[in-house]
């Protein structure tokens, strides 16, 4: 077993455990924390199914952002949906046989990488060019973009410049999933790409990437507008009535 | 008297370039012990205030999902940065919603997150120091909790939730705001924000009865504390005497008169506004709300109707059932509570009110959507009723109505500049500058359509505009109550 295989096997076990464990912890925290008051941003849906639709539009189309700022929307949308397609394309490295739809999106997935990078660069440019956004950007905001750009760039390089041994990579990940370690291709570009992805997985639950689960728990977006019809009472608030 | 410049009204709204620190001097008066104590807060900065503040912050993250999720979720995308009227009016970057939240978020990160504990510089986390507390006091009192930012945030992050939590933390360490806390004390002691005792209310209402009778030769009643009345009306205390508020109250009375219903005001619950919300204190908000429940039980009414007031309607519509419910002792046929506009609108729909629109022909009107009505409540059964119902009532009462530009009305409305506990003379500069976006929108319809008056449905908006309109070259009486228009137009057919 080579050094890199051991390092990356352990790295991905650790990263996965931290990602899943960390997210589970935060989601549990969000779910358990009561929302004592009805605070949907109105006009809001008056039914549960209406809320599901509202949340769907928010997550799929970034509806509020669209109303807010077209530039951020375009760049943000390119980035997120580019990344989504690119990620979906990567499913094929973790399964055998590969689902048909994953096969079908392969060609799109490749160009989605460019969309992702373009979106990220656009968002990054705003952090320098717009004085208001420059003011609110911390070092971590720049580094987060740098990390994602680097992931996209290394990934695209392997698609278009220097191919890696994708068959061997697939056997590495398939093996990893059943605790039967197989050698990883020792290609520097690939190792860099995977290392950066592992970093992203590790920092996910301790960074602003928490916006991904957070949006689903946002009371201004997920509450039904029915305070007059149904009494809404948090457990700690009910204690005050005793 | 003003030691600041009123912003210039531009032809088209311009997003200003940031000017750091230009509003750092803006601070409302701090509450003395006498105003802190009745609310259960310490009278001055406690010795170990840092720890007390952090403990409170932790407690609040456990009690409010909004607070916890919003502290974690912001990605600093910048979507909100040009949405706050205080930023647009002052150019101070700490008045950008995200930057305002960050004043608190960077302390949260320092003490409660892995990244902030171990890499504070990297994520912009800071220790809680007196300077930070001073910044909190200044800038969390430059937020009117109008929720405009929450409309545009891709995660719905509501700066109002952060501001309320920040004010609650500051109250807990002994740094409260005089204006809000003194007023809440008055409600506990007397029953309303203005401290009008029962005899004064009675006197005022008798005066109004005489005035209306002189005007109309009809005896329109203004009942107070009448047991057995069907409807309890709770209205902001400014309605009892301030202009143009009182003209709205006269309008309600005429509408009830025409509807032939029995109604009463209450001296115990003679205030619709609930400043407990402004300071983010669930307990105080609940205490104030319970007075409405007590009055309803004591008077034996069947329904509750709220007068024209913005934040009050938010607390009433969205929170009253939670804070002071259940209202199973009231008539289940009617929503609890109802807005006076829902009541009047229903009468108009049924053809039960005779309105002579020409009575308002001296005015060309526009309508200011009050922030908390627009974005934190509803009227009627359908979403958006809070926009259509007031407009339908206005249009039924006058011949000339014109809306301001689309991006300044409905849920995109701008705050008047005085909401959320900022309607105090010690914040005059902030109030004038914060009114800028609304004033620009008003100027637009004044020039485009010859609009002469702006109608509003909030006691704070009305008071704020009366005060700031002159700074922008409008007259103070160009702000009117919606029920003032109804009052002018209504034909009293019931001569009893």
Would you spell out the secondary-structure blueprint of this structure?
The complex is a heterodimer of chains A (242) and B (496).
Chain A: H1 3-32, H2 48-61, H3 63-68, H4 70-90, H5 100-104, H6 106-129, H7 131-136, H8 139-160, H9 166-177, H10 188-203, H11 211-214, H12 219-222, H13 235-240
Helix pairs in contact in A: 1-10, 4-6, 6-8, 8-10
Chain B: H1 33-36, H2 49-63, H3 65-73, H4 85-90, H5 97-112, H6 114-118, H7 120-123, H8 130-139, H9 148-152, H10 159-173, H11 178-189, H12 198-216, E1 231-234, H13 245-259, E2 263-265, H14 282-299, E3 303-306, H15 310-324, E4 338-339, H16 340-349, E5 365-367, H17 371-376, H18 385-397, H19 428-434, H20 436-449, E6 453-456, H21 459-468, E7 479-481, H22 482-489
Parallel strand pairs in B: 1-2, 1-3, 3-4, 5-6, 6-7
Task: Summarize it.
The complex is a heterodimer of chains A (242) and B (496). Helices cover 70% and strands 0% of the residues of chain A.
Verbal overview:
The complex is a heterodimer of chains A (242) and B (496). Chain A has one domain (44-217): Fumarate Reductase Cytochrome B subunit. Helices cover 70% and strands 0% of the residues of chain A. Chain A has 13 helices and no strands. Chain A has helices at 3-32, 48-61, 63-68, 70-90, 100-104, 106-129, 131-136, 139-160, 166-177, 188-203, 211-214, 219-222, 235-240. In chain A, helix 1 (3-32) runs parallel beside helix 10. The longest helix of chain A is centred in the N-terminal third of the chain and has 30 residues, at 3-32. Chain A is globular, with a radius of gyration of 21 Å. The N and C termini of chain B lie far apart (51 Å). Chain B is built from 22 helices and seven strands. Chain B is globular, with a radius of gyration of 22 Å. In chain B, strand 1, helix 13 and strand 2 form a beta-alpha-beta unit. Chain B is mostly helical and 496 residues long. Chain B has two domains: 33-183, Fumarate Reductase Iron-sulfur Protein, Chain B, domain 2 (Orthogonal Bundle), CATH 1.10.1060; 185-402 and 451-489, no CATH class. Chains A and B meet through helix 1, helix 3, helix 7, helix 8 and helix 12 of A and helix 2, helix 3, helix 5, helix 7 and helix 9 of B.
């Amino acid at each position: 077993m080579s050094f890199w295989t051991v390092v990356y096997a352990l790295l991905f076990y650790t990263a996965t455990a931290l990602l899943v464990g960390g997210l589970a912890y935060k989601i549990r925290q969000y779910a358990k924390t009561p929302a004592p008051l009805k605070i949907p941003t109105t006009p809001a849906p008056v039914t549960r199914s209406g809320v599901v639709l509202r949340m769907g539009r928010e997550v799929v189309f970034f509806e509020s952002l669209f109303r807010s700022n077209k530039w951020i929307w375009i760049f943000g949308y390119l980035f997120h949906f580019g990344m989504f397609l690119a990620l979906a394309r990567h499913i094929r490295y973790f399964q055998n046989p590969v689902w048909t739809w994953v096969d079908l999106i392969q060609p799109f997935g490749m160009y989605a990488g460019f969309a992702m990078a373009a979106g990220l660069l656009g968002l990054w440019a705003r952090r320098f060019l717009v004085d208001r956004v420059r003011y609110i950007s911390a070092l971590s905001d720049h580094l987060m973009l740098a990390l994602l750009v680097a992931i996209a760039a290394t990934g695209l390089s392997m698609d278009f410049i220097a191919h890696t041994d994708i068959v061997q990579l697939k056997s590495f990940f398939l093996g990893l999933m059943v605790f039967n370690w197989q050698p990883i291709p020792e290609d520097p570009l690939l190792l860099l790409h995977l290392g950066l992805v592992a970093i992203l997985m590790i920092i996910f639950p301790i960074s602003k990437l928490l916006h991904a689960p957070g949006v689903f728990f946002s009371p201004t977006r997920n509450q039904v507008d029915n305070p007059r019809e149904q009494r809404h009472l948090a457990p700690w608030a009910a204690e005050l009535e005793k | 008297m003003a030691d600041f410049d009123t912003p210039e009204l531009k032809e088209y709204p311009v997003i200003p370039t940031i000017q750091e620190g230009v509003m750092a001097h803006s601070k409302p008066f701090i509450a003395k012990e006498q105003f802190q104590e009745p609310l259960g807060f310490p009278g001055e900065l406690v010795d170990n205030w840092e720890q007390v503040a952090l403990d409170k912050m932790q407690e609040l993250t456990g009690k409010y999902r909004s607070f916890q999720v919003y502290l974690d979720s912001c990605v600093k995308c910048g979507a909100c940065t040009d949405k706050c009227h205080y930023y647009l009016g002052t150019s101070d970057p700490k008045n950008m919603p995200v930057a305002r939240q960050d004043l608190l978020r960077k302390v949260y990160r320092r003490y409660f997150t892995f990244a902030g504990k171990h890499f504070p510089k990297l994520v912009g986390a800071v220790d809680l120091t007196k300077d930070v507390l001073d910044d909190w006091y200044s800038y969390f009192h430059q937020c009117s909790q109008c929720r405009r930012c929450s409309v545009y945030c891709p995660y719905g992050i509501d700066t109002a939730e952060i501001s309320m939590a920040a004010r609650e933390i500051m109250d807990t360490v002994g740094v409260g705001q005089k204006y809000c806390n003194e007023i809440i004390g008055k409600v506990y002691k007397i029953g309303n924000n203005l401290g009008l005792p029962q005899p004064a209310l009675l006197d005022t209402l008798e005066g109004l009865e005489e005035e209306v009778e002189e005007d109309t030769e009809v005896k329109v009643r203004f009942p107070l504390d009448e047991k057995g009345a069907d409807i309890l009306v709770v209205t902001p205390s400014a309605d009892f005497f301030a202009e143009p508020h009182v003209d709205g109250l006269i309008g309600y009375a005429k509408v009830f008169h025409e509807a032939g219903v029995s109604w009463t005001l209450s001296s115990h619950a003679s205030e619709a506004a609930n400043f407990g919300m402004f300071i983010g204190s669930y307990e105080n908000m609940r205490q104030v709300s319970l007075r409405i429940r007590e009055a309803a039980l004591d008077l034996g009414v069947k329904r509750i109707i709220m007068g024209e007031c913005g934040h009050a309607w938010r607390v009433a519509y969205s929170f009253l059932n939670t804070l002071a419910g259940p209202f199973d002792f009231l008539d289940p046929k009617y929503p609890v509570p109802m807005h006076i506009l829902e009541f009047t609108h229903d009468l108009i729909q049924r053809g039960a009110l005779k309105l002579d629109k020409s009575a308002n022909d001296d005015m060309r009107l526009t309508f200011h959507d009050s922030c908390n009505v627009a974005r934190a409540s509803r009227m009627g059964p359908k979403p958006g009723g809070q926009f259509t119902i007031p407009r339908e009532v206005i249009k039924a009462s006058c011949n000339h109505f014109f809306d301001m530009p689309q991006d300044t009305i409905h849920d995109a409305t701008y705050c008047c500049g005085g909401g959320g506990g900022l309607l105090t003379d010690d914040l005059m500069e902030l109030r004038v500058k914060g009114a800028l976006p609304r004033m620009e929108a008003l100027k637009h319809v004044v020039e485009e359509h010859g609009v002469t008056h702006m109608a509003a449905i909030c006691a704070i908006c009305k008071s704020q505009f009366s005060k700031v309109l002159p700074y922008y070259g409008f007259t103070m009486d160009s702000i009117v109550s919606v029920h003032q228009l109804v009052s002018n137009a209504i034909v009293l057919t019931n001569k009893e």
